[in-house]
Amino acid sequence: MKNFKRNKNMILKKPLLVLLLLICGTLCCKAQLNPFQSIYFQNRYLLNPAMAGLNPGLNLNIGYRQQWSSFPGAPKSQILTADYQATDKVGLGLNVNDDQAGLIRQTRAMGTYAYHLPLSDNNQKLNFGLSLGIDDSRLDRDKIIGDETDEQIARYNQAKPYVDGDFGIAYTSNELFVEAVVPNLKAAFFKNSIERIDVDRVLFMSAVSYKIKSNDDFSNMIFEPLVAYRKVKGATDIFDAGLNFTMTNYYISLQAIYHSNQSAGLGFVFDQKAFAVNFTYNLETGRINSYTAGAVELGLKLKLFQK
Question: Positive or negative, the Cα torsion across 140, 201, 259, 174?
């Protein structure tokens, strides 16, 4: 009788474990489809390696993103980036990203080399960047509710960290910004080489923005509309449209971005000479909004060794 009860519990726990993994994977996918909003205006190096060292000095960025949800294991992300202008034409960078969703934790660390080619006046440049590093994903056994000896868990954690990379290009001037990025190069060109679940990675991203300046007696205002396109493996193509409104005399910016996968983000930035802080709230406008209260994003930027 005891053996029967034990076998019955294991039978019930295995479907529960599979269901939990599927739900966690879905939430993780959704989190990846709504990235850090700072990639659009505040920290473009976070996605595009061509942006490393574009601005003078050493720029340090830390960020934290947490989904507001009562579901256990709700997705959260942490980032750390550092980029440095080594010379007028060369930029160096470090980009570390840690994502957690349920049982799954993915850590990615990339080193970057960027080259900035001056074109003419108005600070026009053609920028190229390449990042190379390590990508590692694993299951946290301490959070498993069920049979920890399940073969699928062992197979997932046996997969070794792999070398990955990103490539980016951008045209920049005082007003115009145009970029194209191929992140996750391993997933893009070696589709059968990764044993882990790989359905939510960005395969290509492009964006265009333009700064419109307006001067008045009270504040220098800058309007920067942006449109972007993202191709994501295993998902419908995503289009983004946003606006960054800056009042330079007051050191503040207000942002609004809408994503075609039925979500939107609202942000506030306080930007000083030596540092900047940002707060963003992302809300779901589609059917998934009944399962999540949105996500909050916090960021801090330190500007060191400025000329």
Answer: positive
**CA 213, CA 179: separation in Å to the nearest integer?**
21
Residues β-bridged to residue 82: 60, 94
pLDDT interval class at 219 (50, 70, 90): low
The beta strand positions in the chain, using DSSP E, are 58-67, 76-85, 90-101, 104-120, 124-139, 162-172, 176-182, 202-210, 212-215, 220-232, 238-247, 252-259, 263-271, 275-284, 295-304
* Interval 69-79: pLDDT, tens: 656 677 889 99
Instruction: Yes or no: say if 102 and 140 are a contact pair by the CB < 8 Å rule.
Output: no
Do strands 220-232 and 202-210 pair parallel, antiparallel, or not at all (unpaired)? antiparallel
Euclidean distance between CA atoms 81 and 129, whole angstroms: 15
> Tokens 């990639």 correspond to what residue?
39
**233 alpha-carbon distance from chain centroid:** 15
